[in-house]
Structures are given as structure tokens and as C-alpha cells.
Design brief:
There is one protein chain. The chain is α/β, with parallel strands linked by helices. It has a domain of about 130 residues: Rossmann fold, CATH 3.40.50.150. Helices cover about 30% and strands about 25% of the residues. It is built from seven helices and eight strands. The chain has an eight-stranded mixed beta sheet, with helices on both faces. The two termini are about 30 Å apart.
């Protein structure tokens, strides 16, 4: 098992819930891995190995400081450097909403990994619906930006992703919402701020 230097940072409750979806000992590819916090946690606590993909210079340096293997790559260019089923699990945690080629990257996730795990802000969450009814775009803990300075180039709901998965011949293994680390399985499209899907190719 990889040994990592200690870097002060405690994973969020949502991150811990997502980490539990990754089987012990998996080979993991984390797309848009940020500072490498999730991958470091998976290596340390679940005996995983793998790589992060990140474009931001500061985040790449943070990954290196954590001892996380990281490749600096623009995800808009795809994952052609990886063969089919190169990884047990491919993660897209709060990445999909930033990509112009979101549908292509979803198919690439299913190609490169035996299992894909995607999490993104759920625009169907009831506070978001209420904000729109009041005539304003929502600003929340999960969607913290004003409409004019957001890095998100798209928004979606659990039902939107289900339709996209069907359109791309992906089998959904599990789906639920996350609300401050709690799994929401009853009416998740209205009751959860984050959507989570675990899927694979048919």
C-alpha cells in the first residue's frame, strides 16, 4: 500500500460518503482531482492506488505535496492516453459541470474504468427551485457562486443524469443524493444538494 506524507486536511462528510463507494484495493483514476484530498484518503484508508488528473498548477503542487501521483492534463482533450478498463474506478467528483465535453467525458469514464462514480450539484434541490421561483439563480453551499462569476458551465438534476446515462448506454448501479454527508434515497431529486451515480457500460 502507498505511504503518504501527512498533510493537514480532513475530508468533508460528502467526500467520506463517496469514498465508501470505492472498493478496497481499487486502482483509481480521479478526474479533476483538485488538491488530491480524495485520492490521498483512498490510498491511506482503503488501500487504493492510482492517479489524479488536474490542470491547475497550484492544485498539482498540492497533490505532489501529499504524495499523490498526478498528471497535469486538460480534460477537454479526453483520455486517449488510457486504454479500455485501465482502472477499477474512475471518479468525477464535482467535475462534470465544468466540462464542455461532458457527454464525451462520461463515455470516456465508462471506457477507461470498470466502474464510474459521478457527483455533481443537484439543481433540483428544493432551495434551488425556490430561488428560481423567486426569480433569482440560487446561491448555496454547494452552488456558492453568483450567476455572473460561476465556473459551472452547466447545471443538472438527478433525472437529467438518468436520461443522459440511458442515452449513452450506461447502466446505473446505484444512485442517491447527498446532503451534508447523509445519503438521501427518498425523493433525492428534491431533498439533496448533491447527486451521486455509480455506473458502468452495458
Amino acid at each position: 500500500m502507498n505511504q503518504l506524507p501527512e498533510v493537514a486536511s480532513k475530508p468533508s462528510p460528502d467526500s467520506l460518503s463517496l469514498a465508501r463507494l470505492v472498493p478496497h484495493g481499487s486502482r483509481v483514476l480521479d478526474l479533476g482531482c483538485g488538491t488530491g484530498e480524495m485520492l490521498a484518503h483512498l490510498i491511506r484508508e482503503r488501500g487504493c492506488a492510482g492517479y489524479g488528473i488536474e490542470i491547475d498548477d497550484a492544485n498539482v503542487q498540492a497533490c505532489v505535496a501529499r504524495g499523490v501521483n498526478v498528471i497535469q492534463l486538460n480534460l477537454e482533450e479526453g483520455l486517449a492516453m488510457f486504454g479500455d478498463s485501465s482502472f477499477d474506478v474512475v471518479l468525477q467528483i464535482d467535475t462534470l459541470q465544468h466540462l464542455r465535453n461532458a457527454e464525451v467525458m462520461l463515455r470516456e469514464t465508462a471506457r477507461v474504468g470498470r466502474i464510474g462514480i459521478v457527483a455533481f450539484p443537484n439543481f433540483g434541490h428544493w432551495p434551488n427551485r425556490l430561488a428560481v421561483l423567486r426569480g433569482r439563480m440560487p446561491v448555496t453551499k454547494v452552488l456558492p457562486y453568483q450567476w455572473y462569476d460561476t465556473p459551472n458551465i452547466r447545471v443538472g438534476t438527478l433525472r437529467d443524469f438518468e436520461a443522459l446515462a440511458l442515452q449513452n448506454h450506461l447502466k446505473i448501479i446505484d444512485r442517491f443524493g447527498l446532503q451534508e454527508g447523509r445519503e438521501i434515497r427518498f425523493w433525492p431529486n428534491a431533498r439533496a444538494s448533491r447527486a451521486v451515480f455509480k455506473f458502468q457500460k452495458y
